[in-house]
């Protein structure tokens, strides 16, 4: 097998494949029958309602505690000037999620299943591990957000340590609801999103931000007077919004609808309705994030922690109102305390409810994603409760350690930046395969990406990966320093990381027909040199042969 040899992908038109896909779909979802779609040719609200669900589950990733913290930090540091970054992130996210949904609709398989058949053994194992890391990091953010919400809602009576432990149990509530069908679970997620709209919208109304400045910050793509810190914060918004495991999730969720894949007209119709539904869901998500950013832009911009501390001294009913001791960045916990000091205990409780809804809704989507990824990559079908128990146990271990340490609340909430950084590292391992698969004629047939879409998605991918790498470098310098030995330690890891990205990119460019398959395989001297280098290294024989 050459470096570019691609495994045989089953013909999607063969009955045997269709039967296998149907069997897998029944195992993926707990509904005995997938959601029926009205059989009429007219555009209707009734048909849109039948397709509504997967997009709202997908949009939860845009509303998790990591995103909420990035929003409040952006507002506190740059006022309204980074709202346009939030808008652009959602637009790019919508276009990429559309590709993910189309992949699942057309192929009746999700990304992990296709990756299993597409890539050789070692690369797909690496892909699987990278996505699992992203899922665990996302789950850690959900643990942190939920634990902080429980602490605030109990007015400090339930310590963070117990709040973290409670998050192991609360997930099983969702698994119980899941037994009643995917449609009811979708309704639950819509309810949780509605709670976030109401709670964060309430804070927006109470805070009364400058609406003119909100509009200007949203439509003017510039950040006047911004320094390096504001730029890094803007990048963190971008990285928190576009999450790697969400592409795997969305491509699987759309399989919950009954679509006649023998009829190209019905496939095109499903693509259209899923695109509309995703756009509506992300529109709602954008406004929830806008509410959070605007609240803290109005309340905390150009205020020191000393200013907030003086205000909090008159509120004895607010837990930990003395937390504002120095001018460190604001986080989820401090944001809730500030709202309590500014508007009273009710505002803090409402913030806690919204944060709890964000953490809980993200928990279940993470569970689903983990299930899809494991079943697709390694063909292991675990009961969801086992998957939840293992993933959540891995996620809470470092969180518990931070809670036990002195000053745990500060370390716990500050951990979100690091987790966002790790997820940014994993982004290429979802983004590049998705562009590859949706550009492949063998997988997508007549629904493959057009040349314009291919080039646009590649440009979006390059920009996204580029800004993420910049953020990663800045984060490493901030937390680890710039000593020479840091670069020596990071160099081998960085080389392997970039090599694997290049490896995936070559596959992508071949499927996009930007480079010629045979020319790259047999005429490129650089690849021949790569073979010679790796041929004697155990575990890398997929490159050498």
TrEMBL record:
Transmembrane regions: 158-178, 185-205, 231-253, 274-297, 337-358, 452-472, 484-510
Topology in the lipid bilayer: Multi-pass membrane protein
Annotated organism of origin: Caenorhabditis briggsae
Keyword terms of this UniProt record: Membrane, Transmembrane, Transmembrane helix
UniProt lineage: Eukaryota, Metazoa, Ecdysozoa, Nematoda, Chromadorea
Matching InterPro entries: NRAMP_fam
Biological process annotations from GO: intracellular iron ion homeostasis; intracellular manganese ion homeostasis; iron ion transmembrane transport; manganese ion transport; response to manganese ion
Annotated compartments: Membrane
Gene: smf-2
Family the UniProt entry places it in: Belongs to the NRAMP family.
Full protein name: Protein CBR-SMF-2
GO cellular component, one term: apical plasma membrane
Main location: membrane
GO MF terms held by the record: iron ion transmembrane transporter activity; manganese ion transmembrane transporter activity
